[in-house]
Structure formats: C-alpha cells, structure tokens
Amino acid sequence: MIHSLFLINCSGDIFLEKHWKSVVSQSVCDYFFEAQEKAADVENVPPVISTPHHYLISIYRDKLFFVSVIQTEVPPLFVIEFLHRVADTFQDYFGECSEAAIKDNVVIVYELLEEMLDNGFPLATESNILKELIKPPTILRSVVNSITGSSNVGDTLPTGQLSNIPWRRAGVKYTNNEAYFDVVEEIDAIIDKSGSTVFAEIQGVIDACIKLSGMPDLSLSFMNPRLLDDVSFHPCIRFKRWESERVLSFIPPDGNFRLISYRVSSQNLVAIPVYVKHNISFKENSSCGRFDVTIGPKQNMGKTVEGITVTVHMPKVVLNMNLTPTQGSYTFDPVTKVLTWDVGKITPQKLPSLKGLVNLQSGAPKPEENPSLNIQFKIQQLAISGLKVNRLDMYGEKYKPFKGVKYVTKAGKFQVRT
Amino acid sequence: MASNSLAYNEQAGAGETAELGQEAAATMSPSGAFGLFSSDLKKNEDLKQMLESNKDSAKLDAMKRIVGMIAKGRNASELFPAVVKNVASKNIEIKKLVYVYLVRYAEEQQDLALLSISTFQRALKDPNQLIRASALRVLSSIRVPIIVPIMMLAIKDASADLSPYVRKNAAHAIQKLYSLDPEQKEMLIEVIEKLLKDKSTLVAGSVVMAFEEVCPERIDLIHKNYRKLCNLLVDVEEWGQVVIIHMLTRYARTQFVSPWKEDGGAEDSEKNFYESDDEQREGTERRKKPYAMDPDHRLLIRNTKPLLQSRNAAVVMAVAQLYWHISPKSEAGVISKSLVRLLRSNREVQYIVLQNIATMSIQRKGMFEPYLKSFYVRSTDPTMIKTLKLEILTNLANEANVSTLLREFQTYVRSQDKQFAAATIQTVGRCASSISEVSDSCLSGLVCLLSSRDEVVVAESVVVIKKLLQMRPAQHGEIIKHMAKLLDSITVPVARASILWLIGENCERVPKIAPDVLRKMAKSFTSEDDLVKLQILNLGAKLYLTNSKQTKLLTQYILNLGKYDQNYDIRDRTRFIRQLIVPNEKSGALSKYAKKIFLAQKPAPLLESPFKDRDHFQLGTLSHTLNTKAAGYLELSNWPEVAPDPSVRNVEVVELQTKEWTPAGKAKKENPAKKFYSESEEEEDSSDSSSESESESGSGSEEEADSSEDSSASSPSEQEGESASESEGRSKRTAKKSWKTRAKSDSEDEEKENEKSKSSDSSSAESSSAEESSSDAESESESDSGPDSRKVTKEKEGRPKQARSTLPKDVSLLDLDDFNSVSTPVALPTPVLSPSLRADLEGLNLSTTSSVINVSSPVFVPMKTHVLLHRMSGKGLAAHYFFPRQPCIFGAKMVSVQITLNNTTDQKIENIHVGEKKLPAGMQMHAFSPVDSLEPEGSVTVSMGIDFCDSTQTASFQLCTKDDCFSVNIQPPVGELLLPVAMSEKDFKKEQGMLTGMNETSALIVATPQDFTPSVILQKVVNVANVGAVPSGQDHLHRFAARTVHSGSLMLVTVELKEGSTAQLIINTEKTVIGSVLLRELKPVLSQG
C-alpha cells in the first residue's frame, strides 16, 4: 500500500525518508513541489497528486508535509488517516511534531515507522502497544541507558497486540486510582451581518484520563443521552450496550484518550453565548477606513465567558491599523494581514471594544467585502448542550477510584460575517 | 586536515558520539591528507571501527548514525559488510537497527545479504513470538530473488504458527514474496486460502489484504469465509476493517441480486423519513416481482452498520461506500450523518469526503439535503474545500431551498478569494439553468455583478450569462446592450469572446449596436487574443450575411487582417469564411447555405456538475478521487441477473463442535498439507465434517462401557509380560531391521499420496511383514528407566495449543522434500549457493530433532466416574473416583485420582480418612488429607495420588469414617497410566523405529469409513487413553504418543487406515504388557460402528 514516506518542511527540504518496499527516488517529490507552487498557499496543496508512475498522498501538519508514495489503488482516506496517526504518534512521543523534534529523535522515528507499517500495511498503530515496543525518550531514561547500556526497545510482544483489547496493556498498577472525564463542547457557527444565526451546531468530545490498576470495566451513563445525535466511539466501547441502553460501557485504555466525539442533534436550538457589534467600513477614494468592534455576552447561563480572542483576516490592501482597545491587547501583522485581538474576560458592566482607523494602500480600489471575524472563547463548568454525566460505575476491580467530570464549552469554527 | 575537521562537525551533528568519532579519527589522521573526497570515506571508516568494536554501546552509536544517514537519504551502502556482521547481535536495539539497514540495502548488495539469511532462519524458530515475527518480516523484506524458496518455506511455516501475530506477519510476507516473484502465485494462494480460514481477528485484515493483492479474482476462496468475516468484522483492527469492507463490497456485487429494483418493500424497517422525489420516481418504476434479500446480503449490511461510529475516517468511508453500492436505496440514508461528521476533521479528510459526497449528491439529493447547512462555506476554508462545498450545495439546490442558497451565494460572490467567487458565479448559472423559477432572478443578479470592480468576477459573469442567454433565447436585448458596453472596459479574453459571440448570435435583435461593435473590434483586431480574434471573424461573417450593407467593407478589412495573422488557426478560419461568404466565381454550392451554416440554431450548453462522470468508480477509492483509473483498481461488477448459488457460503458446523477438541484444530491445520497433494480437498472436507458430527454423539458412551470391560481382562496378560525378559536382545535386533522396512514403506506411502493412486499393496505387504515379526514379541521385561524431568503446563487453556504447536514442523518437513525435488534445477543457479542452502535447510530439520519430547497437557479428559464405594455398602457414604488426567502433585510417578465423597445420610459424617492400605509390592499411595466432617447431603472432592507402577493392579485400601471402615479398590484403566507427550512426526518415527519387534503389538480393525475420519479416530483414542496427538503428514496415518506415568516409557499408538474399511492398529512400547492391554482396549472401541 504505502510505498515510501517523505517528510518535507516548509522551505521544501526533504529531511526524512523511509521506504517500505523498493526505494523510490526523492525526485518523485518534484511533482509535489510543482503542485505546491501552483497552489497559492500550503492549505491548498491537493492531498492527492497523480504522477506518471506513482500517486502522492500528502497531509500538512504542524508546518510539515507528510508525503506518501503509493503505487496502486488504495482508499485515499486510509493513507490520510494513517499519516495523521503517524503525526499523532510523534506528537505523543516527542511532545511536538516538528522538524527539530523529528531530527533529534531520528532513530526512534525510524523504529516507530518500522513498527507501524509492514510492507506498507499498518501493523501497530495503537499508542499503548507502540510504547511497549519502543519506549518514549525521557531525560531520565537516556541517562540510565547511557550508563547501563540497556536499550529502549522492548523485546517481548506487547500483551495488547494479541488480546482482543489491544488498547490496554496488562499489569497496570497505580497507587492512586483516578478516572477523569472532560466534556468539551465546541460551538460551530456562522453569524451573518445582521447578527442572526445562519448555521450553528454543537460538536462535543469526551476526553478521558484514566489511571486505574488492573482491568477495570467502566460504565458511564448520562442524564440525557438522547441529546447525542451522532456519536463516534473509541474502539473500546461496546456498541451493543450503547444501542440498547445508551450507556457507555468499556475497558479503558491506560492514560489519555478520546472516549467519544458526538454531535448534538441539529433540532435543538443552539444558544450563542456572545454577540458582536461591528462597524467596518472603507471610504471610497481615500486611503483609510474605520474599524469598530464590540463584544458582549448573551445567554451565558450565569457563567463568565473568558479567553476571548478575535482574529480577522484583513483584505490585502490594508497597510496598517491604528486601533485602541478598551480591554486586552491587539496585534496586526502587516505581512499576513491578520489582526488578533486578545480580549480576555467579558464583564457585562463594561463591554470590551476595539476602535480605530485602517490605513489602506493608496490608489488601490477599496475592498468589496468586509472581513469576517473569527472568535474564540471558553466557558468553564458548562456544557452548552446541557449534557450531563449521571454516574460512573466500575466493575472487575476491588478498589475505589477517584472520579471527576469537568465541563467546558468553547468556540469551534465560530465566524461572524460583517 | 581541514577536511578532517569538517567531517567532525558533521559527525557531531549526526550522532551523539562526538567524542567517539574524534577518538576514532585521531588514530587515522594521516589519511586526511588525501584531500577532498577522503572526508566521506574517512567518516565511514570510523563507523566501521565502531561497528567492529566489542562494546555494544559503540556499535549502537554507529548504527544510530547510519540510520540517521539512511533517513536523510544519504548512501551508506558501503558499510554493508560491517553492518551485516552485527545481525546476530544480542542487543535487541542494535539488531533492529541492523534490520532497518539490511532491508534498505539488501537489494543493492544481494550477495552480502545472503550472509544474514541463516540468522533469520534460526530466529524463525525462536520461542519468542516477537523475534519469530520480526525475523519473518525482515527475511521477507529482503528483496533478493535467490532466497525466494526460503521465503516460501518460512511463510508456510509461519502461516501455521501458534501465535496469531506471527501468522499476521506471514500474511504480510505473502504480498512481499508475490511482488518479488509473481511465479509463486499458486503456492501463495494456497497459503492465503489457509490463512483465510484463520479465526484470529489479528490475521483477518492482513490476509484479506494479501488476497486483494495476489488473487483478487479468486472470489471462490471467500465463499466459505464470508460469514465468518462478516461476524469478525467489528473486532478486526481498524485498518483491516477498511480492506475487508472493500473486498466484501466487491464480493456482494458478484453474489447477490440487486436490491434496488424492488425498494422500500416489506423488509424495509429503517425507512428514511426524508425520502426525496428522486426515490419516489424510482418507486413508480418498481417491478412487481417480489424481492427477498439474501440473508447473507443482509448480514453484511447489518454487521457493518456499527462501524459507521468508528473514529477512523477511512472505516466510516468504507462503510459508506458499502451502503452506497450494495444496500437498498432507502437504507443508504444512514451514512449521510456519519459522513457529515467527518467534515469536522482535518482538511485532507474533508477533501476526500466532500468529493465523495459530491458524487453521491448528484444521484440522490435527498440523502444530504437535511445537512445543507453543514456545507456552508467559511472564509477560512482552503479554496479546494470551498469549491467542493459549493459543488455540493449546487447539487442539493431545489425549488424549496434555492432562495436560501442564493442568499448564501451572495456572500460568497463578494469573497476575497476570487477563484472561489468565480466558481460561485458558475454555480449561480447552474442553479438558474436547473431551476427555472429562479432563473430570472439569477440572471438579474449576474447582470448586477457585471458592474463589479473585480475583473475576474465580471468575466465569469459574462461567460455564465452568455450560456444562460443561449439556453433561453428570449428577449434579452437590454442585457446584450449592457454587455456590449463592457467591451470597452473588460480585458479578459474569454469574456470578450463571449460578448462578441453573443452579439453575433443576436445581431438581428441589436441591429444598431452590432456593426458598431465590429467597427471597434476591427480597430483593435491585431492586439486581441487569438480566442477573441476568432470571434471577431465570426461576428464579421454573421453581420456580413445579415447586414452586408453596413458591414461589407469592415468584414473584408478584418478578413484581410486575418489572412496575414501569425496564428494558423486564424488564417485557416479566415480562408474558410472568405470562401463561404464572399461571392465569387469559384465559390461552390456551399455559399448558398452560408446563412444556414452561420446562423443555425445552436444547442444550448448543458451546465453539468464536474462530478457527473465519477459515479462509475467505486466510491472512496483513489480512482474516484483522481477520476482516472488508478493502477490496480478493481472494477465493481454489475449486479448479476440471477444470484449464484448461495449454498456455497454454507459452512458445516464442524468448527463449533470441535472447538473443545484439539483434533479439530489438527484436522483443520492438516488441510494445507492435504491440499498439497490432493485437489479435491473441499469435498473431502465437507464429507469429513458431516460424518464427524453424526458419529460423535454415540462414541462417548460406547467407550465408557468398553473400557471397564477391558480393564478386568488386563490382569492375566500382565503375568505373561513379567516372565519373558531374556528375549530383549533379540528383539532389539529385529527391531532395527523392521524399522528399515517401515521407513521404506512410509516413504512409499508418501509417494502414493502424491500420485493419488489408491492402491498401496506393496507398502501394506511390507508393513505387515514388519508386524508379523513384532506380533510374537509381545512380552518384554519392564525396565524401569528413571523418570524424566517433565515440564507440565497446568492450565487447561494451553492444552489445544500445545498439541498444535508441533504441526508446523511437520509441514516444513514435507515441504522440504517437495522443494528439493522441484526447485533444485530452477531456483539454485549457482553451485556455490546450493550447499549452503541445503545446510540451512538441514539446520531446520535438526532443530526439530533436538526438541525434547515433552509431556503435554491432556487432549481430552473423559468425565467418566467409577464407583469406589456404593452408598448402600458405605452406610450412606458414597464415593466415586475419576481420573482428571492431570499430572499428580504428590509425586511424579503417581497417577492423580479425584475422589468425590457424598453424604447421603441425614447426619454428619465425621473424620473421613484413608485407613489401612493393602498395596501390591512397589505400589505407593498418597492419601488425601482427612475430611473433618461432611454435612448431610454435602459432598466434597479430594484428590490423591497413586503410583500404580505401570500396572493395572488394584490398589486396595480402607476408607474410614469416625465409626466405620470400608474396604475399597481402585483399579486404573490402562489408558490412565499414561501421560500424553507432544512430539514431532520425525521423532515419532525415530522412536517407533527403536520399538519394533517384540515391542510392537498390532491388530486389524474393521469399521465403516465414517469411523475413520481423523477427528473420530482421535476422539475415540483419547477417550480410552490419555495420549497426545502427533501431527501426521499423511492422511491415512494417525499417530498418538504418550509415556507411562511411573517409568516414563514411551507408548506409541498408530492407526493406519487401509483399503476398504479396515485399519491396522499398532502399538509400540517397551511396556509390552500395558501395550497389549491397551491394544485390547482400543481395538473394540475403534472397530465399533
């Protein structure tokens, strides 16, 4: 399936290559560079490129391109999903998926790639299995290894690989047994000029951090499971239980993982927690314009909206901006034309606003369209959909775990058109 | 020296071993004088030194640096010899890095790569499954054609390995070998067939992948595994799921009839609430013929549904395409929700998913209509995503939602992303053309856009308006006039050409403007784009024909300009037009029709989705994404008119029944070997299994009755045995001789099998002679050899596995013969290599012989109990005993016996213990610990150990309670004096060879053929005696091995099937007494119908 993999940085250097079958020359990447040049920016490089003898399927992650070489028919999503999994693994191992991190750990990267694919077909992608095969680098371990000469390569087959619960290893032991769940909901919305909602939807995930000894069997139930419209599960969840009882029953992986991600049914009206008053205008035949944006809270259920950031991609003709915020600070990057306003918390008494002048390139026609505002915010202790965890039960182990649930609502792709 | 220091710097960057590098380099600084190119050479030199050092840390550092070089794409091939030496390193990390290196460069350094092969062959036999698997992985990744036979062998071995992980790797190796040498296809298909039967979820995905790569056309291999794959699917790892689902989609399209004709029928439980008009139209076309979905078809659809909830986008997409291609149309709606969910994912996933949705939305609008708003575009989306979303929005547009959409489009048109804005304009055009209600408002909207400041937008609008006007040749004079004015400002060639064409077509509607436009264009003709020039010529020609008075001169001027144009297309067009319209003497008949030619009604262009033609590709494939057939694309066949026989998927229940039975595993595993020789294995299989299920129920009870009968008959035979001890020496000699004949007959048998000839006269004759010599040598002295140290696995779980573990060796043995005979002339071109190869192969054999014969866990534990003390004679205390066939915990020479005590009185029975023992000489007994009290109706199970000294003599003792003593006896059935051992076929033959003559007893059995299926025989034999099955390469030979508990002497049982319904039962053992008793016990059991 996957023939070779090339890692390419933003400046077009191939800094790592790995082949699982016969070696494919680096020159195959020229087709990729060609496509990259054609596309205006990195985001627009087509993920699938056809070349005379190969097909290139690439992803763009953290300023790196992962370009895989394919020779025969394969579901493209298969490759894309796998490449993302590779990037996730790097992230997991090195804390970041960057060129420097990969170069520093090139041997581990190679060992990982060797284990993850065999003959181009995924072999072990479950992080808990990989971590037993190849231990992640830590400072302590590297010191110990250099003294004792022991290696960070495991020599036994990870227990998970063979069991029917490959996500969990055997013999987990903790002195403090804890299970934490984070219910994170994101509001995706498009708000039009007049402030009415064009489209809004809640996407949620439940991330878990489970540190439990032995083989615990957990079941998590909700007060209002009907809210969850479309759910995707971690493989550990027993689908039948969910179908019949709407209870999440599972033997959890060890550590951090995403338990489910869900969408709240579109029938429910989505409460939009903030509103934006905006007035952006460019004067005809003059090289300046006005910019005035105010943010206020709305339907916030008694919780404070915090961590607000407004990002605006200004039109190309904007040279500079001269603004004064009543709260927070702003930056404008004249190269990328991105305005970022870091607001912070909203206090209803004094609404934060950002006002000022926009300097345009003289002589250029005024932009036709006002830029749209991308807004980020966060509300602690609230799941905007109203989803509530009812209880968590544990079977199969004797001890009493410490349990906790946290709710957060965030802005997802939250866009205000102006 | 300058170059030297340069090299150091590089090293310091490459590895963590700057000091080491320096150290090494210091010793060889003189070579620095060689100048420029020496730096590279030198660096490798120091790596070589590090590799040759005896410190693992230095080697490891060197390997790390080399891997760093490989990763960067630098050439490190010249280090090959130094690296390969470390292939057998003890340090697992070094080893792994060497593997990495080896796989990378083996293709370039084939000769040297061969040095490493033997290491892998050794590792293939390693007890650690991880090492076996990685050895197989590396071995199969070395792309050296010369080792193809070795790879083939290794794959075959591994495919029968105990560890599913190793089998999974074997499946991967199949593909590698296939790509290295497609000639091996037939052999590989056999392995694939075997692995397809594997029940491990770990293997399923990989073997289906191999199937898809090697023999996707052999759909017949899937039949029997279809249901299993459907049922396993949920538990297979995610990558395997994708592959399996794609394969099953293809399979379903060949095996089931279309569910589409008759849709929304009675069995339609999950009907969609949003059935579109599209589907209703289909509904009216319904045929009245009743359609019933094949249950297997339903099974696939049902079992894949949960996977829509997978976190893996590829799995969701795979299920979606399965539903799209094979489920009834009314059920396909469930996939849309999941696909829309994927749109939250990263841009690459979005891109692919949107492409597929675009294709789907053309055919079945209804599916995605409820999710219309999910496709609304955000200004931050990449352009490629935006255009795809737009495409989908257009496909979904209908009367009901078009006004909402147009409002949305208004935002898009003003987007800063001009490419996207242009695409939106085209979209508006398409909406206008497909939905007539809005076409007027669309048109006016587009006309408004003509006054936009952005040229791209205006140009695109012009082109779209041109198309729209062409479709609706109504009175649009105003628009045309407006556009004519634009010619002054607009510069985009396509737009200018469009305007000119529009004026030309409608020149009679705008009689005043058209000639003026021509005049303007004549002025600028030379500076126009070619596209525009052609349209100017056309406009001139049309005006000449309709309004020659005003435009004759202008047209001729333009034609003159065109005549000398640089572009030959234009010169060509000019010549053509001149001949056609300007009347002269030479002009032919055509000029009469000039007006018809130029001013004919032109068909309106059809505004279609660019995804229209993609639907003939299977969704979710690379070919679909590229819209061209990718290499290796497997066409999805059309539904068959008539479904092929569904019974091919029926699987007899063999597997279920035989689960607790190791023989099942054995019978199954033997298949490949069988296949090797016979081609009609499938039929055999099915007949086997059916007969098995019939006879199984009866046999158990029969044997119970039988064994008790025989145990009573065994005591007289024992006396015979004790007396005859002098004949030992003689018997040894005859043993040797007869072993030779036996071996001969064995090999002949094999050949027979090969040729599939049914007669085995010669071999049976020879073997019977051997039997004669042995039959009179029934008695022999009991020589007590010390008990061997035994490894005993206690858990019952391990039982079937243990028995199976011996199988691969057997397979390899057979294959060896085969391989030597077949491939010697072909695959071993160099004489240099063949000896080493052979040595390797011999190495394989040797490793099997060296394996110690271990006691394995029992194959089967009959639950039969014997009465020790009847409750009537025991005053209410009843005792039963049974043989758990577990190694005794009280002593290695003891047989463990479990006694169940029951209190049938209404009072407590206290202090139950063993009283006085009356044991024959030599016998020992370990009594159970006393039971303090036994409640009324209570029962307790105690275990004790008895050393029967390998005889069936009765152990008598007293069972005492507080008040009474009862004399009881335990007499062991001979089969319980044994412990099963696992050994290879080769070992068996060797041992058997040493136990002929007097040590051999045999009997002829007559029974119906159903009783001679492998599993039935095994069942019967293990029911009587605690023996272990020995893998057999031949169908007609069934071998079992055990050793006596006390002395550890081997007890080898062979059942050799003969012609007709007879079989020869042979027992070889030093303990001839027990042997003959066992023979007597086995004979009636096996011969019973």
Automatic annotation (TrEMBL), chain A:
One of its GO terms (molecular function) is small GTPase binding. InterPro entries: Adaptor_comp_med_subunit, AP2_Mu_C_sf, AP_mu_sigma_su, Clathrin_mu, Clathrin_mu_CS, Longin-like_dom_sf, MHD. Pfam families: Adap_comp_sub (PF00928), Clat_adaptor_s (PF01217). It comes from the Eukaryota. The keyword Transport applies. GO terms for cellular component: axon cytoplasm; clathrin adaptor complex; cytoplasmic vesicle membrane; Golgi apparatus; postsynaptic recycling endosome. It is found in: Golgi apparatus; Cytoplasmic vesicle membrane. One of its GO terms (biological process) is postsynaptic neurotransmitter receptor internalization. Keywords: Cytoplasmic vesicle, Golgi apparatus, Membrane, Protein transport, Transport. It is a peripheral membrane protein. The keyword Protein transport applies. Its main location: Golgi. Belongs to the adaptor complexes medium subunit family. Part of the AP-3 complex, an adaptor-related complex which is not clathrin-associated. The complex is associated with the Golgi region as well as more peripheral structures. It facilitates the budding of vesicles from the Golgi membrane and may be directly involved in trafficking to lysosomes. This is AP-3 complex subunit mu-1. It comes from Oryctolagus cuniculus. The gene is AP3M1.
